Amino acid sequence: MSASQILLLIGAYFLVLILISYFTGKNDSNADFFKAGKQSPWYVVAFGMVGASLSGVTFISVPGWVGDSQFTYLQVVIGYLFGYFVVAFVLLPLYYRLNLTSIYEYLLERFGSVSHKTGAFFFFVSRVLGAAFRLYLVAIVLQQFVFDDLGVRFEFTVVISILLIWIYTNRGGIKTIVWTDTLQTLFMIVAVILSIVLINQELGWSFSEFLASEELKNYNDFLVTDSILDRSFFIKSFVGGMFVTICMTGLDQDMMQKNLTCKSLKDAQKNMVSFSFVLVGVTFLFMLLGALLFIYAKRNGIGIPLMDGTPKTDLLFPEVALNGGLGLALSITFMLGLIAAAYSSADSALTSLTTSFCVDFLNVEKKAEKDQKKIRKQTHIGMSLMLIVVIIAFKYILSSNVIDSLLTVAGYTYGPLLGLFAFGIFTKHRIKDHFVWLVAVLSVTIIVLVANIPESYLGGYQMGYELLPLNGLLTFFGLWLIRKKESAPSIDR
Length: 493
Hints:
Strand content: under 5%
Order of helices and strands: HHHHHHHHHHHHEEHHHHHEHHE
Low-confidence stretches: none
Largest sheet: 2 strands, antiparallel
Number of strands: 4
Shape: globular
Structural class: mainly alpha
Distance between the termini: 57 Å
Helix content: over 70%
Mean pLDDT: 81
Strand order of the largest sheet: 1-2
């Protein structure tokens, strides 16, 4: 597939998104931008959230990771499933009861303004880094397979990507995204299924023959139970995955903002439960695709693509799809899936960052009505520029597999949020609010130090995703130390 064909495909795709934005963004109000008027059908939100959760990281990085980790990522995914039930039946009732626009307003009512700002700040850092990870991955694929041939610099690729997202989210916000995410999820699921079918056909296999093949057995190790010292030991991966979901979905404005557009709590819970099972199934398909890609590459002598002289497994899927001799159909399928996966998460991230900054830091709802829309639009531009800077910086500092990097960073940035919400929900204590930021910073600092302890000092123990619940526990303990004697009044409404 030539660079010009890919550009035409991208252009046509964005025309469709802009058309959806035109119809959903006719009422250019803050209420629709932030909460879609609380009229979103739950099944539409559930389906769209699959694409937003998987993103370009899953689309490219999970298949590429199979070569090193085989199917052990499924241990984390099973933990995700249990985490989604906690979100549905513990956190969502709280958010709906308080009728929140930003979920971090809960911390304001429960503890005070410093806790509110601290929680919003850690979400802000988490989401900026998470969105940048996802868009960076797509940008390097577009750069390697399209824009390098045209002599276009990486920085320009990033600017164009963010500009296109800004254009179709500028008016409708979350109301637009609920519907564009649905379309993008459909493209992504179709892409992974067609990719599996087309590569199996090229290998002369049926799907059942692929599942029964000896070659698949080289990649399908699932459980790691030999030693708790191993970074991917089952309990560590399962618990880490559960808390990753609780934090990256239930304590994340990006994901919760979609749930809060549903008509009722019951609808939001149906959305969360159904979405969780679909997500697990789709993630398993991506892992099967990863094994298939490595089998095909080995049979056809396709090496791991290089980036700046270093092999990068994240680029194996695009290499096989675009340059593997499998035909135009797979190339088109891959590009549509990649674009859909990338922008279904990036557009909602941009909207949630705008929402959180306006509500949590600028107190936009307290401003004069004539100024509210102007503040929101200026913030939207500012968030776009910030993402551009961070994504470009990643090109020069990121070295490991992107999904591994994303989950590792989550262990640092989401821990304080986990501790704050857990302390608020499971205790009745007030705290000395002005010390909360110090507790959060100390907790993250300790976790960073622990994560960098040499394995030899720990008897060979490898730190994994358990750093996230440990971070939350440290924050919880710190809040316990600064608690006050009197109990907090109920904030139920």
